[in-house]
Amino acid sequence: MLDCMKLFITEKMATRTVDIRSDTVTKPTESMRVAMANADVDDDVLGRDPSCFRLENEVAKIMGKEAGLFVPSGTMGNLISVLVHCDIRGSEVILGDNSHIHIYELGGIATIGGVHPRTVRNNEDGTMDVDLIEAAIRDPKAELAYPTTRLICLENSHGNTGGRCLSVEYIERVGEVAKKHGLKLHIDGARIFNASVALGVPTDKLVRAADSVSVCLSKGLGAPVGSVIVGSNSFITKARRLRKTLGGGMRQVGVLCAAALVALQENVGKLESDHKNARFFADGLNKIKGLKVDISSVETNMVFIEIEESSGTTAAKICKDLEDYGILLLPIGSSRLRVVFHHQISNSDVKYALSCFQQAVSGGLNENGN
Ligand SMILES: Cc1ncc(COP(=O)(O)O)c(C=O)c1O
């Protein structure tokens, strides 16, 4: 029995919720709510919202870029960025076959922007082999058959491989290839702060080679809404027009930006603790017969769990059993689960979740929780 089982037994069932479905599920903190209530606002479509202006400048500064633009979501941030770089329909973008843009964004770059995706296989660490990236670039002098490559996209940290981090050295190598062929480089940095903290590298250094970055404030940083895309002044001027075209121009948006500014000030420093919780949780799960986590893949705030056949249970069953006890998580397929840590999960929550996992896998939970 794990030590933390004791905690489980004394816990009043279902009075506690441990929501580890994603880092997008956080609730705005008290200081965010106060900041939202008191936000200094004006019409941002007219370019006059002071809170929005502060947030955009702050994120641009942190990322070492000239300018920033607040957008409602990471999906819109990526879409706008790809479309600005690929402003001629029929352009081609090279991106990972397991990337968020390719898999989870409804193919918007193609349906809305007329941009053709050329996928390169994502390795288990989230990288694409640099020689494969280079080989995927179309030869502009070749016969009249091919789209024109204009952009390479990377993702850091890489969600579908479990929050793995791309190193500065890797990103700079891809940047050199992009430069050599006259291409732009975009980084989907939905969780760039997680990568920066895990690697111990400042964000501006990590994205130095990129022409644009989409930074989510509503993932690990815990803001309720929004992302900021950053890049050169001319990139942001074009991005602003596209955002309006897509219906993403918002009026008194400072209400949202004020919460995001608090998230930047208060929550970047908490990411290291989320990463520690993820590692602690992964170690604990590996002590439970029937579950397996590849510890080397736990670099940031995500844990992917394999359910071994011998356990006689399934991802769906574990999720259902745990839900009765307030543990919320997501299955990925029939024998895999995903857990994501965030600042509203304490180490005591992690221990409680571990004890519930132990019960759910080795014996099943009864209504008394044991
Ligand atoms: C890596 C990555 N990029 C982009 C997005 C899209 O962000 P949003 O849900 O705000 O559209 C997500 C969302 O989870 C993500 O994980």
From TrEMBL:
Any single biological process term in GO: glycine biosynthetic process
Modification sites for N6-(pyridoxal phosphate)lysine: 219
EC number: 4.1.2.48
Record's catalysed reaction(s): L-allo-threonine = acetaldehyde + glycine; L-threonine = acetaldehyde + glycine
GO molecular function: L-allo-threonine aldolase activity
Pathway it works in: Amino-acid degradation; L-threonine degradation via aldolase pathway; acetaldehyde and glycine from L-threonine: step 1/1
Record Pfam families: Beta_elim_lyase (PF01212)
UniProt entry tagged with the keyword Lyase: yes
Cellular component per GO, a single term: cytosol
Cofactor: pyridoxal 5'-phosphate
Aromatic amino acid beta-eliminating lyase/threonine aldolase domain boundaries: 19-306
UniProt entry keywords in alphabetical sequence: Lyase, Pyridoxal phosphate
Stored InterPro entries: ArAA_b-elim_lyase/Thr_aldolase (IPR001597), Low_specificity_L-TA-like (IPR023603), PyrdxlP-dep_Trfase (IPR015424), PyrdxlP-dep_Trfase_major (IPR015421), PyrdxlP-dep_Trfase_small (IPR015422)
Matching SUPFAM superfamilies: PLP-dependent transferases (SSF53383)
PANTHER family xrefs: L-ALLO-THREONINE ALDOLASE-LIKE PROTEIN, L-THREONINE ALDOLASE-RELATED
Function: Threonine aldolase involved in threonine degradation to glycine. May play a role in the removal of L-allo-threonine.
Family: Belongs to the threonine aldolase family.
Name the UniProt record assigns to this protein: low-specificity L-threonine aldolase
Gene that this polypeptide is encoded by: LOC101515415
